[in-house]
Amino acid sequence: METSNKHKWAFIINPVAGNGHSLIVEQELNKQLKERNIDTKIVKTQHTGHAKQLAKELALQDFTHIIAVGGDGTLNEMASALIDYPQCTIGLIPAGTGNDFAQIPGLSTHFEQKDWDVFFEANTHPIDVGRCNGNLFFNGMGLGFDAQVAAENYSEPGEVKRGGKGKYIWHILKNLLFFKEAKMKITANSEQKEALCFLNTISIGRRFAGDFYLTPTAYADDGLLDVCMVSKLNLFERLSILLKVPKGEHVSHAKVHYYQTEKIIIDVDKKSAYHLDGELFFDTHFEIDILPAKIKFIYNPKGNHYFLNTKK
Length: 312
Fold this sequence. Notes:
Elements: E1 9-13, H1 21-35, E2 40-44, H2 50-60, E3 65-70, H3 72-82, E4 89-94, H4 113-119, E5 124-132, E6 135-137, E7 140-144, H5 145-151, E8 154-156, E9 159-160, H6 165-178, E10 182-188, E11 191-203, E12 207-208, E13 212-213, E14 225-231, H7 235-244, E15 256-261, E16 263-276, E17 279-298
Parallel strand pairs: 1-2, 1-3, 3-4, 4-17
Antiparallel strand pairs: 5-6, 5-17, 7-11, 7-16, 8-9, 10-11, 10-16, 11-14, 12-13, 14-15, 16-17
Helix pairs in contact: 2-3, 5-6
């Protein structure tokens, strides 16, 4: 079993992704590389931001296929660094906690042999990239309720609390009870309005926190951001919508405003938490736009990917 040697592969492993699950994935990766007789370079991150540094170094060393082994945060760092290296093909072997991005290119979150086989075929497709205040996101960003959940998922800047999926559920439940909506001024599609918002999710992909399809009709190659804005809710409405989100059925609720745009500007009165692919930031002014077909990504043409302009 061999893979074409015209590709020069490199892998960036985050050893703490998925509470160490990435190290288990690394063992299988080494087996797959050996079976395919692939000469590669494997490097490991040592701190927050290291994946970005390593990715640039690998691009300058003429690696053609640079792959993240980790979660959405690892991918964000790596892909952000490679945005200006169009000669590089980007890929992901999911090994994080939520692995939300993996659904975009149709990847399994737990690779079996058939997934490895498809992955090393290295089929590629261009993917849109989102941008907020100059920082990039590849799955989505959130401002409001989901950002507060992300904020409570950090013990200090760049350090994620341990605890797996259970910690997401706990923070979600707590904020369902106590989260207070903020007034937001929103400009999109030549219209401006003010509203008390429970959340604003702006995305390339569909899924967040493992099970929540906040933007269930998004495609990652249509050149548009999908926006799910939820107005102020009482407790009953919060619970009702939460139960509908896993199946994407919340979009028909009267308090949910779902639309697409190429650009959106949001202003809030005080510095507020927001997340990009789960990574936390704070600001009062948000300029968000889309960079169409900006990266070349390995995908599964037979999987349930979220692309419009390709055939399975």
